[in-house]
Amino acid sequence: MTTHDLPTLAGIWEGSDTDPGVRERLQRHAGLSGGEPTEEAAESAHRALAASPSRLLTATLEDALGVSERPNKPGTLTEWPNWSLALPLELEQLERAPGPTRLARALAG
User: Fewest 10 Å CB contacts: which of 57, 61, 68, 84?
Assistant: First the structure.
């Protein structure tokens, strides 16, 4: 779905990290109309990945938690907080958050 150098799913879906081509492909491959909430778009996209022939799939915590900001902005040396963005939940909260469980189920098929 993404890497540390690409927009997060929420960034694309909510429009804060714009790339119309990526949003269009996300809609097409995940069977989305465009009006779904971010959580539903993430689950549908990961379910589409699970249906692919790939033997290895992962999900980022940013996508599981609906984080819109990229963890890294390639080619930047002075922009802060590059590589130092905190997740919106502490570890104890993360263990109980529904997003990671939802994406894990989607990837499990």
Answer: 84
